[in-house]
Design a protein that fits this description.
The protein has helices spanning about 65-85, 85-90, 100-115, 120-135, 140-150, 155, 170-180, 185-195, 200-210, 215-225, 250-265, 275-280, 285-290, 320-325, 335-345, 370-375, 380-395, 435-440, 445-460, 470-480, 485-495; strands at about 20, 25-30, 280-285, 305, 410, 410-415, 420, 425-430. By secondary structure, the chain is mainly alpha-helical.
């Protein structure tokens, strides 16, 4: 009412943009994730796809099930239906255009070229476009037939199974799926068309360009979270009796803390593997600062904080990771040790000979967690693996079940000493987590394991499929490039481009 508010300044207006990510609580969308630029609209089919196999450390479709075939059919029908329902907007061809048929057929050819990741030969264009329009009763049906046939074609759904690995369009797809998990962009297709993907220098130049694209970081981030096994456990819950105030919001903030740590180490311009292993910083906001002892205002946004002086170092002391690999109200040296030995050091462990539950603290009220674990894994059947697992997990005992620094466990001083015997039989001793972090940053075992797991995630093949010299060659390049993860990604796709390995064995490629 202007009369009532005459001469008064109108109060400011506010809006809140919130979201709820998987396994997270509802939160205001952080400003760091908002973009001022407009983005072209995208269509995402609602069809659900069965999960691909992840048992060997990366997603790979190793078979074509009826469920997967049905899903591709449903998604193709859904996509083609959307295009036809929005035909003039999607194609840019108006209903009254005199050359409407020719332009719609041209759109369908471009669509097929994009899906097949290469120019169409006259025979392929005739099969996928010309014949479909000729058999249709109207132009809309012709578009729908052409699109459905394209999206159900093995040329789209699989990665050039029968093509030569030296084909420049195969090389382009190898780069784009390896670094971006998606189709080649126009720059890459043009490089293939103009003969600019023939030698390693040209391939490397394209890979360097692509590695600096945000899509490469998105793929690396997904790998790092898989590597650290943070998505393979249920929602993070802690005992309210032992850790009052640790709720869903705290768990969600801790996940953000880990993601920001990874982004500012592995995702930085230097992308330094050693910094990821050694950085003493954690990213905390005001509410986390209160829990973890950082001097921050209650409403502080996430920022880097150096916690706990000499005790905390690198990703293995991330509060989120330490919380994940712990029980409701107690630490778990076994779970933490298994993470380190399997994922960070790349060692193979046999499954336990029998299922067992951890010894309850109430059964041994005078023992520390370390003492209970040592007691439970004392039998000879356990010592083979636990002689490796336990000493690594014990180095993280100075951090409780929510990743806070502690000096005592059950009234006794924490013993965080540990050790590791490498593949050559050399034993290294650690005084605590920081010594372990230094070892993970510098050791051949850890660097080789990281290189091999990143290779498998990017190429979707065991590294030995490309010969026994591949891992040593990539390890050398990793060291020469100052342990830049980004440059290691470039080296991986460059080294494997134009080689067949076993990668033409029917891996499902593009996802509709």
């Amino acid at each position: 009412d202007t009369a009532k508010n005459k001469g008064k300044v109108a109060p400011p207006a506010f809006i809140r943009l919130e979201w709820r990510r998987p396994k997270r609580t509802a939160e205001v969308i952080p400003s760091r994730l908002l973009y001022p630029d407009s983005i072209a609209a995208s269509f995402v089919p609602t069809t659900s796809f069965p999960a691909d196999d992840r048992s060997i450390g990366y997603e790979r479709g190793t078979s074509v099930s009826k469920e997967w075939d049905d899903a591709t059919t449903a998604a193709a029908l859904e996509t083609a239906g959307y295009v036809v329902d929005n035909l003039s907007r999607v194609t840019g061809v108006q209903d009254d255009a005199k050359d409407r048929k020719e332009r719609l057929m041209a759109f369908c050819r471009r669509f097929a070229e994009r899906a097949f990741r290469r120019p169409l030969t006259p025979e392929v264009a005739n099969l996928y476009v010309d014949k479909q329009f000729a058999a249709a009763g109207n132009l809309e049906t012709g578009v729908k037939r052409a699109l459905i046939l394209t999206l159900k074609s093995p040329r789209f759904l699989y990665r050039e199974v029968a093509s030569s690995a030296a084909d420049p369009y195969v090389v382009a797809a190898h780069l784009s799926f390896g670094l971006w998990d998606t189709l080649p962009d126009s720059n890459l297709i043009q490089a293939a068309a103009s003969g600019q993907l023939k030698d390693p220098a040209q391939v490397s130049a394209q890979a360097e360009r692509m590695a600096n694209d945000p899509r490469a970081w998105n793929k690396l981030r997904d790998f790092l979270l898989l590597w650290l096994k943070v998505d393979e456990t249920p929602d993070l819950v802690k005992s309210q009796k032992s850790y009052p105030g640790f709720d869903g919001t705290v768990a969600s903030d801790l996940r953000t803390s880990l993601e920001l740590f990874l982004e500012n180490t592995a995702g930085s311009p230097q992308a330094d593997y050693r910094a990821m292993m050694l950085s003493p910083q954690a990213f905390l906001n005001g509410s986390l600062g209160k829990i973890y002892g950082a001097n921050l205002p209650p409403d502080a946004d996430f920022q880097p904080v150096t916690l706990d002086g000499e005790d905390r170092a690198g990703v293995i002391t991330s509060p989120y990771l330490l919380s994940r690999f712990a029980y409701l109200d107690a630490t778990s040296p076994i779970h933490r040790g298994v993470l380190v030995i399997r994922n960070l050091l790349g060692r193979t462990l046999m499954p336990p000979p029998v299922a067992f539950a951890p010894l309850a603290a109430s059964l041994h009220p005078d023992l520390t967690t370390r003492q209970r674990v040592s007691l439970q894994t004392k039998p000879a059947a356990c010592t083979g693996c636990h002689s490796l697992i336990n000493p690594l997990g014990f180095t993280l005992e100075r951090f409780d079940a929510i990743g806070r620094l502690r000096q005592k466990d059950n009234g006794k001083a924490v013993d965080a000493t540990g050790s590791y015997t490498d593949r050559s039989g050399v034993t290294v001793k650690f005084a605590g987590a920081k010594d372990l972090a230094r070892y993970l940053a510098d050791s051949d075992d850890a660097q080789s394991a990281f290189t091999e797991k990143l290779f498998q995630n990017m190429i979707k093949q065991p590294i030995l499929a490309y010969g026994p010299a591949t891992l040593p060659k990539l390890r050398l390049a990793f060291a020469q490039n100052r342990y830049s993860i980004r440059k290691l990604m470039v080296a991986i796709v460059t080294e494997t481009a134009g080689q067949s390995g076993n990668r033409q064995s029917g891996t499902k490629g593009a996802k509709p």
